[in-house]
Amino acid sequence: MMFEDPVHYHLPVLEDVILSPSDIHEILSLLQTEIPVQSTSGSETTRSVFSLEERKRRRKISNRESARRSRFRKKKHLDNLEDRVDRLKVENRELKNRLCVVTHHCQAAQSETDRLILESIVLQQQLAGLCQILHPMQLH
């Protein structure tokens, strides 16, 4: 009876990976399958077919993990964009409030300017009237 060395599978260590039950089942089935021993009756063909199937399964698992990581990155990017939108909305609201306050101060200043111009016109008219009254008195 011949003993073979155990087959060691080196799978990448993935952080923050959540495996579905079907993923776990596939991984366990890969670990439980036995590689046929070479014999003289065409087992080389069986071994290469099995290796091809094994590679396909591993590639499928790898693709799933890659897709999962891609979805995670996409979600993280989307979350970052949503946070940025929220911050910009707050900043926009603050700027609108500041603009409203400044506009109110500007309108108040314009009203005060208009009032002062009108008061100046009235005072100039009063001064002109006083000058008309005083001018004939100074001649005598």
From TrEMBL:
Query: Taking every annotated instance into account, which residue ranges of this chain make up the domain BZIP?
Result: 53-99
Q: Coiled-coil intervals in this record?
A: 71-98
Metal-binding: is it a keyword of this entry?
Answer: no
Q: Name one Pfam family in it.
A: bZIP_1
Q: Which UniProt keywords apply?
A: Coiled coil, DNA-binding, Nucleus, Transcription, Transcription regulation
**Record's GO cellular component, any one?**
nucleus
Note the CDD domains from the entry.
bZIP_plant_GBF1 (cd14702)
Q: Name one GO biological process term.
A: positive regulation of DNA-templated transcription
GO MF, one term, reads: protein heterodimerization activity
| Key word Ligase present | no
Chief location of this protein? Answer: nucleus
Localization = Nucleus
Question: What is the protein name given in its UniProt record?
Answer: BZIP domain-containing protein
Annotated organism of origin: Anisodus tanguticus
